[in-house]
Design brief:
The chain is mostly helical. Helices cover about 35% and strands about 5% of the residues. The chain has 20 helices and seven strands.
């Protein structure tokens, strides 16, 4: 059987140690949708390979990278900010709706053809991968729109499904689970996937993704319930299929699936702190070849990513302004900066090791390694804000930088990347750290606590890479802390700017989104710091809003205002996005989500 795999010329760089030498072909054959095409196993291989291009990629930024959330200290117009403020309006068209259904149609076509396949060579793996991709696409739709029309066959212009009402979210999730079960059965183990198939979905990836789906839906049912299901009441969909008993069943399976992935020995946290000046949490996210970091490490060293979009210098560059966009739009808010614990494991308002805000570098001292890894530049170790104060002189200069997902080789000017757009690091969609956090959260939701042993096999592994001491129940009790808060803190920090995790978490925790997204967004502390009354470092007239007093690690202090609370009106109506009105016009049975 012909391998639809390209061979990449070996890298020739100073820091080269090893280089990925294969890459999945994402180019569809010209006759992919012809009835005569799916007759050979090779066709199913090629057909299933093309669905990898439909996974979330570097072009899918915006809210999927937490732009406009409560953790991002950046302001601009457009849908990235409107959603976080609760200002989303029903659009005429939504490519995330129509494009997703186009992908689902192609997947359904392959699955239909597989039922009549009579060849000798097995197509089990390709069918299983396609089932995974259909589950992935439908979960995307459920997260965005709630219940949607469930289509499991390829349609033509006369198909009745084109005029059908929406299925409930629970009916769609049932199909997602069924598809993932089939995928898990038919996919190969991670350890059996050879180098030539690097990046393909494994059995463990399908298990981890199923755990993600189940955790999302269990917590949504527990905390949101059927409050957002009004989209289909009048036409029979509504909350059909809602079963409260599924909450416990789903959570129990999250634990089982997570344990299976954790115990598979196929993945490990990417921890090269000794070689990278404790900056593993920076360089993990911009791995390319050995020249992408000072340790000379390349993608072959990364066994943490479980599901990811694969990129390459030759065959699939990002072709977008990744470093420039992430440096600008993912600058952190005051809330994000204050979430990081001190290196004694205590929150900043409880720790004697917190040095305050007097000078810009002060708050970075004695903190979780990820704070420095995410929010300082590392091309030359020692730049601001480690050795000096940030100049506060205008719009979107609120005191901090972002360097997560920024290339170590980023040029001195943004124009350099506007020309090249050559970044080629893989985009993580699900990694081992998140599996640890899913395991811990599911146990908490089931039992109301974790044992010390359960913490040690999950959340404490992540904390160790961040330079933090292990949690114990005794430590939590004596310091007035609780495990729910710490799990949610870890998700906010560890998964910052990854695949829309913040928005997803806030909504599925029910009521949290209205609170957190309804607050003002703040930047640097002004009161009692080097900036107060210092015209050389701070120009008050260049900002749209005067500083306001808010809670900080040293009590109430005036801080820069990025967005005032009066402009942020996120409500339960914003938990789901509106369907595009063009689709409603084509199908009278398709009802809009509540609030739109």
């Amino acid at each position: 059987m012909k391998k639809i795999i390209y061979i990449i010329v070996p890298c020739i760089m100073v820091f080269f140690t090893s280089c990925e030498d294969e890459f999945i072909d994402l180019t569809p054959p010209s006759s992919i949708t012809d009835n005569v095409y799916y007759t050979e196993a090779e066709h199913f291989l090629t057909g299933s390979n093309r669905f990898y291009a439909s996974l979330m990629g570097w072009g899918d930024q915006g809210i999927f990278s937490d732009h406009g959330s409560d953790l991002a200290g950046f302001f601009e117009g457009g849908d990235m900010q409107e959603y976080g403020r609760g200002e989303t309006l029903a659009p005429v068209d939504d490519n995330y709706y129509t494009d997703t259904y186009e992908v689902i149609r192609d997947i359904n076509l392959l699955l239909e053809r597989s039922e009549s396949y009579t060849g000798v060579e097995s197509i089990t793996e390709y069918v299983a991968a396609s089932k995974f991709h259909r589950a992935y696409q439908y979960f995307f739709l459920v997260q965005r729109f709630g219940g949607v029309t469930l289509v499991t066959s390829s349609l033509d212009v006369n198909s009745p499904e084109l005029y059908a009402p929406r299925n409930s979210r629970y009916e769609v999730v049932a199909q997602i689970i069924a598809d993932l079960d089939d995928a898990i059965t038919g996919l190969p183990n991670e350890t059996s996937i050879g180098g030539e198939d690097k990046g393909k979905i494994s059995k463990e990836a399908a298990m981890a993704f199923k755990a993600k789906v189940l955790l999302h839906e269990a917590t949504w049912m527990k905390y949101v319930g059927t409050a957002t299901d009004g989209d289909g009441v009048s036409n029979g969909a509504g909350s059909a299929g809602f079963e409260a008993a599924n909450i416990t069943a789903y959570l129990e399976e999250v634990v089982t699936l997570s344990q299976s992935v954790m115990n598979s020995n196929a993945f490990e946290l990417w921890n090269y702190n000794d070689a990278l000046d404790n900056l593993s949490s920076n360089f993990l996210f911009n791995l390319e070849d050995g020249g992408s970091n000072p340790g000379g490490l390349d993608k072959a060293s990364n066994k943490e990513f479980i599901l990811y979009g694969k990129y390459d210098f030759t065959f699939r560059q990002a072709n977008t302004l990744v470093s420039h966009v992430y440096e600008g739009r993912l600058k952190p808010s005051r809330k994000m900066m204050d979430l990081f614990l001190c290196d004694d494991g205590l929150p900043i308002d409880k720790s004697d090791k917190f040095l305050g805000y007097d000078n810009t570098p002060d708050e970075f001292q004695n903190r979780d390694y990820r704070m420095r890894a995410y929010f300082t530049y590392h091309r030359n170790l020692g730049e601001i804000p480690q050795n000096g104060d940030v100049l506060l002189n205008g719009t979107n200069n609120y005191g901090y930088f972002n360097s997560k997902f920024m290339s170590w080789n980023w040029g001195g000017t943004a124009e350099a990347y506007r020309v090249t757009k050559t970044e080629a690091y893989d985009i993580p969609l699900l990694r081992l750290a998140e599996v640890y956090l899913m395991y811990a959260e599911a146990l908490y939701e089931l039992n109301g606590n974790l044992t010390d042993g359960q913490m040690n096999e999950s959340i404490n592994l992540i904390k160790a890479r961040a330079g933090l001491p292990a949690l114990t129940n005794a430590f939590l009790n004596v310091n007035g802390m609780d495990i729910e808060t710490e799990i949610r803190r870890e998700r906010a920090i560890e998964l910052y700017a990854e695949a829309g995790s913040r928005y997803s978490d806030l909504r599925r925790w029910g009521g949290i989104a209205e609170q957190e997204l309804g607050e003002a967004v703040y930047g640097a502390v002004i009161e009692g710091t080097i900036y107060e009354g210092n015209d050389a470092l701070y120009t008050p007239s260049s900002y749209s809003h005067s500083p306001e007093s808010t809670t900080t690690g040293v009590g109430m202090r005036e801080c820069l205002v990025i967005q005032p609370a009066s402009t942020r009106n996120f409500s339960i109506d914003n938990y789901l996005f509106p369907l595009p009105t063009s689709q409603l016009g084509l199908n009278d049975s398709l009802l809009q989500n509540p609030g739109y």
